[in-house]
Design brief:
The protein is an alpha+beta fold. The protein has five helices and 17 strands. Strand 4 and strand 5 form a beta hairpin.
């Protein structure tokens, strides 16, 4: 297996917890589905029957780590497009004028949203075909085929590459007893790959500390073949994962020796 490292900076980001409503809470790291969507955007993949999607993206192993400087809570307008909400704001259906100004239809109310500041992300992608990783690297460095502005999280959460994507050699990895406070958050999937004695093998996260989550991974889009709407209703696959806050003691870890950080390279296709 070959490994590609991507370092990303975001001035601000929000990775929404889907079950948070009254206040929009954020994960400290993007879930796998957000990163997969980012890659699909970068590569300009419109069709899930695309061969590169099936043989390249679907077969990636992914590791995610990151940190942020601070978290703030902002207010945004939450728009409700129901008829009842519209009448509550404008008095009757045909009206869209409020205090002499034409506004968007529907009702609205203030909503609190958590936003991360100065976000640094590390994405590791593993694949048996190095050409898949080379194409991803080239497209990220020169995203001429992107579907929209490159972002992670909300549409306004633009990304900046901290360095050119880098293919790592096996000599740049170590699998050894290693621990401490790495001052990064990590997603640790139920099973993940490590390189030991020049051979890749799966190990379990059973002995690692962390909060349990079912994270979304790949998705299918309802009715896509008829309307080609990339933003339509999605049905997700999920992987059981632990969120670790950086403190890892008494574990054998696969380490990126240059950054002195562990890599948890999860297989997202049913082996977890």
């Amino acid at each position: 297996m070959h490994l590609l490292r991507i370092k990303i900076y975001q001035p601000n980001a929000h990775y929404r917890l889907p079950f948070a409503y009254q206040r929009r809470h954020t994960y400290p790291l993007p879930p796998y589905s957000t990163v997969i969507g980012f890659l699909i955007n970068v590569l300009g993949i419109w069709n899930q029957e695309d061969n590169f999607y099936k043989e390249g993206i679907r077969k990636l192993k992914i590791s995610l780590a990151g940190k942020f400087d601070s978290k703030i809570t902002e207010y945004i307008w939450f728009r409700n497009m129901s008829k009842k909400a519209h009448i509550g704001r404008f008095s009757y259906v045909e009206n869209r004028e409020n205090n002499g100004t034409i506004e968007h239809p529907g009702g609205q109310s203030p909503m609190r949203i958590d936003v991360l500041n100065d976000v640094h992300l590390l994405i590791y992608l593993g694949h048996k075909d190095i050409d898949v990783l080379k194409r991803i690297s080239e497209e990220i460095s020169n995203p001429i085929n992107r579907l929209e502005i490159l972002h992670l999280g909300r549409a306004e959460d633009w990304i900046i590459l901290e360095e050119e994507p880098k293919l790592l050699e096996d000599s740049q990895l170590a699998y050894e007893q290693h621990g401490g406070n790495f001052k990064h958050f990590f997603w640790i999937p139920q099973n993940f790959y490590v390189l030991e004695n020049e051979s890749w093998k799966l190990v379990s996260n059973d002995s690692f500390e962390g909060l349990l989550y079912n994270l979304p991974t790949f998705s299918s889009i309802e009715g896509y073949e008829e309307n080609f709407n990339r933003h339509g209703k999605r049905t997700f696959e999920y992987v059981r994962t632990k969120l670790n806050d950086g403190l890892i003691i008494g574990q054998k870890l696969m380490i990126d020796k240059e950054l002195n950080l562990p890599i948890f390279l999860g297989d997202l296709n049913g082996r977890n």
